[in-house]
Specification:
single chain; about 80 residues; mainly alpha; 3 helices
Length: about 80
């Protein structure tokens, strides 16, 4: 079963070089009100350029640095166990 289905999370698709405006709007809507929204980018730099990461970080720029949270940077921490 996909992680998104197990966690009740959504899945948004992007172009390799930029996030479409409609996707940015939806992600922003979904993360509004969360102190620590979780956005997981799947795919290497060839599939998803750094500009996509920059665009998504722009949505959460005023929030705590995710690297300061435990388990940050590890996709395994995003996968429910069991």
């Amino acid at each position: 079963m996909p992680v998104a289905a197990r966690t009740g999370a959504g899945v948004a698709l992007t172009r390799p070089e930029a996030v479409p405006v409609g996707v940015l709007d939806e992600v922003e809507r979904l993360i509004t009100g969360f102190s620590f929204p979780l956005i997981t980018i799947v795919g290497g730099e060839v599939a998803v350029h750094d500009t996509v990461k920059t665009q998504l970080l722009g949505l959460v720029g005023g929030l705590a640095d995710p690297t300061e949270r435990s388990g940050a940077g590890s996709s395994e921490s995003n996968i429910p166990q069991g």
